[in-house]
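Following the same procedure, backbone shapes were mapped to integers, as reproduced here:
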Amino acid sequence: MKIKFLLKELVNSLCANKRQTLLTMGSLMIGIMSILLVLGLGNGVQDSISRQIADVTGGEKGFIVSFISKQDGYGFTEKDQERLEGLTSVKKVSLKNDATVNDAILKFNGTGKHEQITYDQISEKTLSTTKDISLIAGRKLTSLTKNGVRTIAIKKELASKLMHAGNILGKQVSVNGTNYDIASIYEGVVETPDVLMSRQAYLMTRGLKDQSNRIKVTYRSSRLRTERAVMNYLNKYGDNSSMGRYQLLNVQQIVSQLNRNTSLATDLIAGVAVISLIVAGFGIMGSTYSSIAERKNEIGLRRAFGAKRKDIRNQFMAEGLLMTITASIISVVLVKAASLMLGRSLGIPIIITWNNMLVAVLIPNIIGMIFTFFPAMSASKKNVLDLLR
């Protein structure tokens, strides 16, 4: 009952000047929300980098080996895959094609007009792992080969350039000299290629045979030992070793450096956001001094009826602490709700961890206690007669 009574008195004291209390809490909430959003965005960027790198390198228990060929048409074979999986430390080998975006020349309808474009292959897996590509018109993006007719999909911006010829669906274009029918129009982000095509068309356009130019190796125990064993085998017995060279893709150090740089940038921006909390702290101090001036008769009466100096000091510090705790809780709830919507619009998840929330609660409360302490001490030291005049 005593705690309930004390809380009620603290709330009544803060509500005595609602506008001042709300403005002070508002400034606190801006600082707290800024810190949480910056930390959450930093976490999201690191998570996005880690997932993308894991996809490229094979994850924590995998790595990538590429084949750099002297000429197109060579890479890793199924025999290479089978023999590598026979190594003791190798768990699994997957044959892959480098999905790097390529440059090409696109000619439209035999007019001689051409565009420098980028192109890539499309698949069910690509569509399921990205939300950056959406169909606008025409056939489904995953059905770009049908009845033996070579078809492609083109980006909306490229379609706009070709729109002088009217509806371009079904029209014929050539990509690096190979003719295709335009089957679809899609929308994408800036990095999305101008043209998407099936795997078969992609290999044909690149002039490659159906051989993989990279492998993903999943290992059982030691990464370094597995890397040495795989590279030794390939250099000695690889089916196409005489036609190029094998290159180990190890980007773990790059990933670590990227994460360090992201953490440093996040901490620096969060540090700037803390400055706004310090400014809010001065607001708390001003609010407390104003409250003391308005309630000097109340303080005098309490002192006259036996309240000690520490009781007066603790009362004002408790009011400041209640204000910062309330602002912290509201800010955390608002940011958690907003992070879902912002994450979708930004394309990068905003990840708020428990440690982030702890920081967002502790820092403003420490600042609030520091800036409330001085006016609270000032109120406790005032002369009783001066207060009652």
About this structure: The chain has a mean pLDDT of 76. Residues 56 and 74 are 21 Å apart (CA to CA). The longest strand covers residues 178-187.
